[in-house]
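FORM 12-B: Structure-to-Sequence Request
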């Protein structure tokens, strides 16, 4: 049987944090343990309900029959590659343009449907975008007070000051945005969005303009503030680590469609497609055919439950699913290089006895730096091995 193994790297830099978060919530898919994340209940009216949403720009369909809900107090991350339609979905929910097909309900009230269109200012939503959109001629306090309507000026300013205190920027109330750092401006934008006490928060790539260290701190603060507010949140991002970090549930989008919705551990450990598996981590890829419910690979036999006999398939194995031992019974591989990546080590391997000494990667927690040309035995972790139709 001819088998082909190639290595496909998606996002090398996100693995350590992503794996840690996935493992933290792995118990959420164990039926014997309670799910602690905030997920919708069947009897509860969702803060946001999107049904059958489709949209075109010219002849190009950018949203194709999207259904999703966000519960009160829940953070849903809409994630996918650039151009998949996630920001357009957010714009339609926000009321920045009317929809063509489908329905959008906010807190049980129809905001968009054919013939129905509530403008953004009537939807009780908080908006936060990548560029923050702060008014440079206004003070920080006036920026935050801008969205608070229907109350006396003194109350507006008091609520704005309280919102600034929540993000630890109360002392900058009289300053102008240009004197603040990027992280501080981001927090002002968040305070402005939360100050009117919206039922629904919509965030579009809010952390992408920050450097890595600042981004980690600001998004941690943002997650806690969103949870404290009690507002439902839909956050759009192209960063899988960010989605895993922020979300109670993740909706993975591809070419205008929802590919999969689930809690982070479900998305990571039970991907619905090869696209989802590869989007959230790099993979080692093998190809073969189903025979007696199994696929024969250079790394051993892999179960192919539910797939028909003889079907051509692809087997995806995450690097952390490649187990290495010095004297095991599995296939032998030669170490090509080993590199320390902080909390884990990445080992490059050449699989002995296969055409062209095929290449694969293994990721091992902690410090694991075998010598070049050392031979190690390989076995697979079934939880990190996935089989999909080719």
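FORM 12-B RESPONSE
SEQUENCE OUT:
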């Amino acid at each position: 049987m001819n088998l082909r193994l190639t290595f496909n790297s998606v996002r090398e830099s996100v693995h350590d944090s992503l794996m840690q978060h996935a493992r933290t919530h792995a118990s959420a898919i164990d039926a014997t343990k309670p799910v602690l994340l905030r997920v919708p209940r069947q009897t509860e009216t969702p803060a946001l309900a999107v049904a059958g949403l489709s949209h075109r720009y010219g002849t190009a369909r950018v949203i194709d029959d999207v259904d999703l809900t966000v519960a009160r107090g829940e953070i849903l991350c809409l994630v996918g590659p650039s151009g998949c339609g996630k920001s357009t979905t957010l714009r339609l929910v926000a009321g920045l343009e009317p929809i063509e097909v489908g329905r959008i309900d906010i807190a049980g009230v129809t905001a968009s449907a054919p013939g129905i269109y509530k403008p953004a200012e009537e939807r009780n939503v908080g908006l936060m975008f990548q560029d923050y959109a702060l008014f440079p001629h206004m003070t920080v306090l006036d920026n935050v007070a801008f969205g608070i309507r229907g109350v006396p000026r003194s109350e507006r300013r008091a609520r704005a000051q309280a919102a600034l205190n929540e993000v630890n920027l109360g002392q900058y109330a009289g300053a102008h945005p240009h004197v603040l750092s990027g992280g501080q401006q981001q927090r002002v934008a968040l305070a402005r969005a939360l100050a009117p006490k919206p039922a629904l928060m919509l965030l579009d790539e809010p952390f992408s303009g920050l450097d890595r260290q600042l981004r980690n701190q600001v998004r941690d603060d943002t997650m806690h503030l969103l949870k404290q507010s009690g507002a439902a949140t839909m956050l759009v991002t192209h960063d899988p680590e960010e989605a895993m970090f922020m979300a109670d549930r993740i909706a993975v989008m591809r070419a205008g469609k929802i590919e999969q919705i689930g809690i982070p551990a479900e998305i990571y450990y039970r991907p619905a497609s090869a696209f989802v598996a590869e989007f959230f981590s790099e993979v080692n890829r093998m190809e073969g055919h189903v025979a007696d419910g199994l696929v024969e690979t250079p790394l051993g036999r892999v179960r192919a439950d539910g797939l028909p006999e003889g079907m051509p398939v692809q087997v995806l194995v995450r690097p952390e699913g490649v187990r290495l031992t010095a004297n095991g019974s599995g296939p032998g591989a030669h170490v090509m290089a080993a590199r320390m990546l902080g909390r884990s080590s990445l080992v490059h391997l050449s699989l002995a006895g296969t055409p062209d000494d095929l290449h694969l990667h293994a990721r091992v927690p902690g410090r694991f730096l075998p010598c070049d040309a050392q031979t190690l035995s390989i076995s697979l972790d079934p939880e990190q091995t996935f089989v999909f139709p080719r």
